[in-house]
Structures are given as C-alpha cells and as structure tokens.
Design goal:
Elements lengths: L4 H9 L2 H12 L11 H14 L3 E4 L7 E7 L5 E7 L17 E3 L2 E3 L7 H14 L9 E7 L10 H7 L6 E5 L7 E6 L1 E10 L3 E2 L9 H12 L18 E9 L5 E2 L2 E10 L5 H17 L5 E10 L2 E2 L5 H14 L4 E5 L5 H6 L4 E4 L13 E3 H19 L2
Parallel strand pairs: 3-6, 3-7, 7-17, 8-16
Antiparallel strand pairs: 1-2, 2-6, 4-5, 5-18, 8-15, 9-13, 9-14, 10-12, 11-13
Helix pairs in contact: 1-10, 2-4, 4-10, 8-10
C-alpha cells in the first residue's frame, strides 16, 4: 500500500489525547518488578483490545506474571512482533511528583515507566487503534506484545514465551531504546558474570600467622585485573565500544577480628561478537589459579554464573530498513545505526531466529531515574513511526 506521511502524522495527532491517557493510566498500575504483577497491565490492555475488536491471548506462568499478545491483520506471514514490557524498576526516592501518579504537566507524562517501557506501550496501543481501521490493507500480521519480566532477565516473560509457548514471528521491532527516535539499534554486546572465590584458613586476627587470608589473594586478583583485557579486545567493532571488565560485587570476612578464610568477587564483562564467555572465563581462571599457586594454602574456584551472548543484525536487512525508513519519513532525519553494551529483548528474539532491531522515544537518561518522564509531542511522533513501520513491514 502507498504510505503517505501526512496521513501517518494526522493519524497519530488525532490520538494525542488517547496516548496521553493510556500512558497516564498505565503508570498508575503498580507493576514494579519484583514482584511484577503484570496481570493488571494485561487486564488493562485486554480491555483496550476488546473495545476495538482486536483479538488477543494471555500467557501466565503463574503468580500473575502475565503477558499478552494481540494481533491485527491476516494471521499470515510476514508476522511483525512489537513487544513492549509492562514491568518497571522500583521507584526509589526524591520524586517531585507521585512516582505512580501518571501526572500530566508541562507537556510531559511523569512517572515510573514513562520511558521504560510504558510510554512505548502506550504509543503502540495508540498506533493499533488506527491500524485496526486499515486492517484490510495488511498482507501479513502485527503482533502487539505487553510482556512481563523484562527488568529481571525475561525468564517469566519473552524467554518463556519463545521457548515454552511457541510464540513465533518473522521480524520484530523492540521499542526499548530511548533515543529521541534518532537511532536504530542493531548490535548488542555479550555479557558474562564470573565469580572468583579464594579459600584460605580462618584464624583470630590477633594471631594472623595461624591463618591464611583469602582476602589478600582476592586483593591481588582485583589489582591485577584492573588493566586486564581479554584476548581479542584490541579488535574493533564498527558499532560497539571495546570490551569492558568491572568488579561489581565483593564479599569477604565475617567479623572485624577474624582473618577471612573466604573471599569472592563478581566480574561483569561486556564482550564483542568475536569473543566468547567461555574463553573469557578460561582466561580469568588461569590468572586466578596462578595467584593461588604462589600462595601456600590458598585454593580458588572460578565459575561462570550468568551469560548472554552477543547479538547482531545487518543494517541492510529488511527489518532494519523498514524501521529506518519509517523514522526518516516521520522525523525528516536519518537515524543512526548503533550498537549498545546493554541488553534488550532483541537478544532473545535473535537467538530464536527472529531478526530484531530496537528503537524508542524519549531521553536515554530517563529510564530508572527519579522524575522519569516523556514528552507528549515525542510520544505522538513515535506513534506515527509505529504506524508507518508496521505498514512498511506487513502492509500490501
């Protein structure tokens, strides 16, 4: 079908009040994770869909950790999935407005989740309100997702939907990268968390010669790894920053007057596609074992406790180009293709064989911050982008 910019912009502008109300009311639903309770958000989205004749299905692994997927179109391929998550992080302190109030003022909607990720969900629903009216122009299907548990790894959300519920699509746009609609994210670093634990011998601190300090071994390890770069870190990636290594957690000692017999640290590494979590863990293990070998009575354990592999799609793939062109058409600006060190739902989708790219409205500094908010003007613009990108991907 022909896609006219004026029609897209007008369709979104007519839904300015709708998208504002949707976001305000979504913020008022307490879906802080933990515990999540995303069912209340899915009930809300379900009522929205029912009122518009949009069929949907809910999925619940238990404990009200519900996800919802609605569909507009033929039911056939190509199937475009746009998943927005309904859980939010804890509100924290220091807000100037009620954090779950959904306050509308100064041209913004304020509250936890305004940018991450209830604003994008509200815009997706507003777009669906229009897209349902032009459903006859679809050659494929739009899958609208209100997804649980993104903030804690997706074990009860998208990961579960893909692995246990048979959810499938041909492509996906993930609206979870606040960038003022100026970026299309197509690459994500890998992540590996590695715990290093040294064991020595506990003793009274007044007679330290009776003990062997595990903390001293750990201190040497932390010092030596401050400047350490895993093998391959000198190879540059066109979109991703270099490999990083940070000690994010350390534990040692049980009392002020006891030589620590055990000391551990967790290393968080963000690595590039040509590296592996297994290889990085092996390198760190060799370093730790070398330190232990030079200290009589010290032993060490090194374990990979969590890992997310890198993910990437090419900029010339249809999914990336459809989103790129839709953003360009609405904003008049050419978005940048970027990579990130964090993780979005793109990872799980790509691992499942579904090409996925990320984008989003709002300021990248807003998620998880006090006084989180999003401009209504930008939400309206985002709604137009979702309409245009959908029609490019699954329209006739």
């Amino acid at each position: 079908m022909s896609i006219d910019r004026a029609t897209l912009v007008n369709a979104a502008e007519q839904r300015r009040e709708l998208v504002t109300t949707l976001l305000s009311e979504l913020i008022q639903l307490d879906t802080v994770n933990p515990p999540g309770n995303e069912k209340i958000a899915c009930d809300y989205v379900g009522e929205f869909c029912t009122a518009r004749g949009i069929p949907y299905k809910t999925y619940d692994p238990g404990a009200n950790r519900t996800s919802l997927i609605a569909e507009i179109g033929t039911g056939d391929s190509p199937r475009l999935f746009i998943p927005a998550h309904t859980d939010v992080v804890p509100v924290g302190e220091g807000w100037s407005v009620p954090p779950l109030g959904g306050v509308v003022k100064d041209g913004y909607v304020w509250g936890r989740g305004a940018t991450d990720d209830k604003g994008p969900l509200a815009g997706l629903l507003a777009a669906a309100d229009y897209l349902k009216t032009v459903e006859s122009e679809f050659k494929g299907t739009l899958m609208i997702g209100a997804i649980a548990d993104e903030e804690h790894g997706s074990d009860l959300g998208l990961d579960w939907l893909l692995k246990e519920c048979g959810v499938r699509a041909d492509m996906a746009f993930v609206p979870d990268i606040p960038s003022h609609l100026e970026e299309v994210e197509i690459a994500e670093k890998g992540l590996v968390n590695i715990r290093v634990t040294f064991h020595g011998k506990q003793a009274h601190s007044s007679t330290p010669w009776d003990g062997i300090s595990a903390l001293s071994a750990l201190a040497e390890m932390v010092y030596l790894t401050e400047a350490w770069k895993p093998h391959g870190s000198d190879i540059k990636h066109p979109l991703l920053t270099p490999t990083t290594c940070v000690v994010t957690k350390a534990e040692a000692g049980i009392a002020h007057n006891i030589v620590p017999g055990k000391a551990s640290a967790v290393y968080n590494l963000r690595y590039l596609p040509h590296q592996t979590g297994t290889g990085i863990t092996a390198e760190l293990r060799r370093m730790a074992e070398h330190i232990a070998s030079r200290r009589k009575g010290i032993t060490v354990e090194v374990e990979n406790i969590a890992e997310l592999a890198p993910s990437e799609v090419k900029a010339d793939q249809p999914v990336a180009q459809a989103l790129y062109r839709a953003i360009h058409e609405i904003t008049g600006k050419e978005p940048k293709f970027v990579g990130i060190g964090g993780a979005t739902l793109c990872k799980q989708l790509i691992w499942a064989g579904i090409p996925a790219v990320a984008f989003g409205p709002g300021d990248h500094n807003m998620p998880h911050m006090t006084d989180e908010r999003i401009a209504i003007d930008e939400l309206v613009k985002y709604t137009a982008v979702v309409i245009g990108a959908t029609l490019r991907a699954v329209g006739k």
